Amino acid sequence: MPTENGFIGRLTSLAGVQGADGKGRVIDSVSVALTATVVLLLSSNPKRISALIQNIDDITSPGSSVFISLGNPGYAIDPGAYVSVLSPLGTLQIDKDFPWTGEVYACKFTNVVGSPTILVTEVSIV
Questions:
Q1: Which of 37, 39, 66, 114 has the fewest CB atoms within 10 Å, measured from its CB?
Q2: Nearest to 115 by CA among 106, 125, 123, 104
Q3: Which of 27-36, 48-57, 89-98, 106-115 has the lowest mean pLDDT?
Q4: Structure-derived torsion over alpha carbons of residues 19, 71, 32, 90, reported in degrees to the nearest 10
């Protein structure tokens, strides 16, 4: 959505980037199957306003938890350095209370045989 009717002013991203006058936000949503050891979920984005990452689980192997790491794909495979563990239907929210504009990676647990699905929704300024 490139503009929002009735919006006056500028939106500001988590990194302090200001959008154009009268412009709104854009929402991107993608579903990612964790078929590899480490998967990039979100690229670095200085225009990010918020993001929601949810572990939808794996219908063929229910109960599939995943590691989430910020900024370094190596952290996703080091159980001592991850940021969060998302249990099935668990979420990680990036917003003003947890501001992160860098890369976000996911890694499935070593005992997970299937491919958990991660739903990623990112809101950015135009």
A1: 37
A2: 106
A3: 106-115
A4: -90
